Amino acid sequence: MLIRKSPSHPILPSEITPETVYHGRRRFLAQLGLGAAGLAAAACGRAAESAAPSGQSVGAGADLKLARKTEMAGGETPTSYEDVTHYNNYYEFGTDKSEPAQYAGTLRPRPWTVAVEGECEAPGRVGIDDLLKLFPLEERVYRHRCVEGWSIVVPWDGFPLGPFLARFKPTSKAKYVAFTTLYDPKQMPQAGGVLPWPYREGLRIDEAMHPLAFLSLGLYGKPLPNQNGAPLRLTLPWKYGFKSIKSIVRIEFTEQAPRTTWSVSAPDEYGFYANVNPKVDHPRWSQARERRLGELFKRPTLMFNGYPEVASLYTGMDLRTYF
Ligand code: MTE
Known about the structure:
The protein is an alpha+beta fold and 323 residues long. The protein has one domain (13-314): Sulfite Oxidase, Chain A, domain 2. It contains eight helices and 13 strands. It has helices at residues 19-32, 37-50, 81-86, 99-103, 128-134, 161-166, 205-208, 261-265, and strands at 66-71, 113-118, 124-127, 137-145, 150-160, 176-181, 200-204, 214-219, 222-223, 233-235, 248-254, 289-292, 299-300. Strands 1, 4, 5, 8, 9, 10, 12 and 13 form an eight-stranded mixed beta sheet that branches. Helix 1 (19-32) crosses helix 2. The radius of gyration is 19 Å and the shape is globular. The chain starts with 18 loop residues before the first helix and ends in a 23-residue tail after the last strand. The chain binds ligand MTE.
């Protein structure tokens, strides 16, 4: 996700084997019996955690009460809890993938209030514990694809975004929805000058109302870990991960398209729409293929990340222009 600073990049971020993938290779070799004795021994601990999602340890916090669970990732096995929570992008806590898990402990997800305002008849503020009771919580297993070329499969817990937004009665002037992350340097001392804070994202109102757009409050049946965006974040499975803004404090209905962090920081590299599209490359990374964390080989990327039901949102739009 870094912005191009110089024309020459000796090693592209997408070419660096992520630590988790490296561990995945060790596991793979160990399982095949090809690794050295020491290697197999070293891999044991993590293999036990991540080989079988049903048996893995999934972090702290009371279990969320889930009304239902829906598999929406083509039957794929979810990525291990360990990988989902230790390979993160959350620049407020550092730019290295391992840093959010290390440093996000300073974020305080309670008390927490989300303000919903702008072009709506019933603006308001909702405390996180009330928000948790607004709708039955459900689990959806979604694919999550980062613009950098890695991907994961995650059981997210929460509720659809549309019915939540509808409670605030958006007016006919509400053409877009803008989202803002908390920015508090005391809680986020690692946030450097790499991005203009606070982190902001936005959607067209019809995208926000699409049944796939999800407000996540947990994952793997537990409250969201801080590094994954506690206490609430967006999950937009057909878009690159940077649209899925974390630790939201403000939602605003707007008439004009909101300014969004990455599209303002590097407009040639990150568009407002950011729909997963294997035919439209990022200037520095091919988007044709991706690497699932924990897997050896890259796989083809699917249009809209394998969620063709969103295609009608973009009828008649040139997706190269509106990338
Ligand atoms: N939200 C905030 N506030 N800050 C961030 O740096 N990173 C984005 C997105 N939401 C980011 C954010 C990016 S680039 C990705 S890929 C996803 O969060 C990563 O989510 P994950 O760490 O839960 O996998």
